[in-house]
Amino acid sequence: MHLLLPASRRRSLDELTDRLDMSVGDSTSKRSAFWMMLALSAVIAISGVVGDSTATVIGAMIVAPLSIPILGIGLGIVTGRARLLARSAVLVVAGVVLVVVLGFLFAQLLPNPINVLSNSQVQGRTSPKLMDLTAALATGLVAAVAVTRRDVGDVMPGVAIAISLVPPLGVVGVCLGSGAPALALGAFVLFASNVLAMIITTTVVLVVAGYGREEGTESRRGRAYAVLALALTLVAVPMTVNSLSTLWAGQISDAARNWLRDSPGAEVTDVTLHSETATVSILGPQQLPPLADLQRAVDDLVPWDPQVVVVHTVGNRVTGR
């Protein structure tokens, strides 16, 4: 731990409290800056989501201050300060409401909100997988180390980009405003997994570093750990399902190509697996092999035997060369 957090570079508990507790010091300035920057970050993120602009969304990630109260929750857990934990949690929840409401309102101004649901900024945040959780845990560890060391604070912009907080919430609001609650739920799972990853890694680092040695805090920490474990399980379940669905979709795509091997010019353009339906998009000639053959192949691959739906576009791909 001395290599990770040298004594000469270690922030004191008072310094951490000043950074992460908005009720300490000039609380009025801290809170006004937090809400102003969060609102501006939300507008930037939602604009980037609606406009399908990756650069704009990255800008919103850097501006967003939502990581401060999230890290404050971890500090409150470790030190047993229930008031700090509660204040930080209230700020996080209020921030979530603000960003989601702004996203919802933006969606009402769109001439055709359905088109937004298919852009890359939305699609990339509505089906989180286990690898997203793994990346979030690693990034949360970086954030925890950066906030406790005086000499690595300059990595925080990179942390903000790697562990996206405001953009998924913007997607939640836009999807709700566009009448797509299932997509909104997927984006919220991504946000929740990122928040939990930051809290868990911050808690681990602070405990190992010895910030939680106050007497009488063990039982409270134990309850907090149990809540975190339960919440992590709840978000890991849909992420696991999404990961498996992606794996099975790839296998279904291979099975579909094998099914089309005797149909010259036919190609699989897309495969999606949602609940009880596997949708296979095909570009090819008028006649296709019997669908029952593909259905049997999919039944052998996927445990719950989803119904295969083929979206068939008659024709062939044309290129300029």
Please tell me about this protein's structure.
Helix content is 65%, strand content 7%. It is mainly alpha-helical and 321 residues long. Strands 1-2-3 form a 3-stranded mixed beta sheet, covered by helices on one side. Helix 2 packs parallel to helix 5 (82-108) and helix 11 (181-208) packs across helix 12. The longest helix has 42 residues, at 218-259. It is elongated, with a radius of gyration of 24 Å. The mean pLDDT is 88.
Topology:
Layout: H1 13-20, H2 27-51, H3 54-63, H4 67-79, H5 82-108, H6 113-116, H7 120-123, H8 130-148, H9 156-162, H10 166-177, H11 181-208, H12 218-259, E1 267-274, E2 277-284, H13 291-301, E3 307-314
Parallel strand pairs: 2-3
Antiparallel strand pairs: 1-2
Short characterization:
With 321 residues, this protein is mostly helical. 65% of the residues lie in helices and 7% in strands.
Write a concise keyword list for the protein shown above.
321 residues; mainly alpha; 3 strands; 7% strand
